[in-house]
Design a protein that fits this description.
The chain is an all-alpha fold and 156 residues long. The protein is 81% helix and 0% strand. Bound molecules: fe (ii) ion. Fe (ii) ion (FE2) is lined by residues 14, 17, 46, 49, 137, 140-141.
Length: 156
């Protein structure tokens, strides 16, 4: 797949997640203002992750990493983007029946999935700088999952 495409896909996943959370936040702002505010924060953090990928891209553009040349890397990231799109579609199609609990559960699942994907990439890449980036992104997902679960506790 090559490093350039990998960075574009990594970046796209962060920016699409940011967009998903921000759109959803706007949509539920009236009904669930607290959750909307929380989603806005998540969205801002995804934008920070996106910038981080961009920064790493400039630093490690020359890094050679054999794993990233394999189709595995490509399919891992393609799956992530597909998942974000599916979640977006689900929210659009089920807007009327969504509860805050359900919204949080779905996003927490998405973050968990991204965490697993970033972890796989972290394990598989060999370049130290790229490893650091994946670890960074993984801990961002983890923080989001934890934040979401803590938020869920408010409703139960
Ligand atoms: Fe992220």
């Amino acid at each position: 797949m090559g490093l350039y495409s990998i960075f574009s896909q990594l970046k796209k996943a962060e920016s699409e997640a940011a967009r998903l959370y921000s759109t959803l936040s706007t949509r539920i702002a009236h009904q669930y203002p607290d959750l909307a505010q929380f989603l806005k924060t998540l969205s801002e953090e995804e934008k920070i992750h996106e910038k981080r990928v961009e920064m790493f891209k400039n630093l490690f553009f020359e890094a050679h990493d054999f794993f990233l040349e394999k189709p595995d890397a490509e399919s891992i990231l393609a799956e992530t983007l597909k998942k974000i799109e599916d979640v977006n579609t689900y929210f659009l199609q089920n807007a009327d029946i969504l509860t805050p609990q359900r919204i949080i559960q779905i996003i927490a699942e998405l973050e968990k999935d991204m965490e697993n994907k970033h972890h796989t990439l972290f394990v598989e890449v060999t370049d130290a700088g790229l490893k650091q980036l994946m670890e960074n992104l993984e801990s961002g997902d983890k923080a989001h999952s934890e934040g979401l679960n803590a938020f869920l506790a408010r409703y139960t």
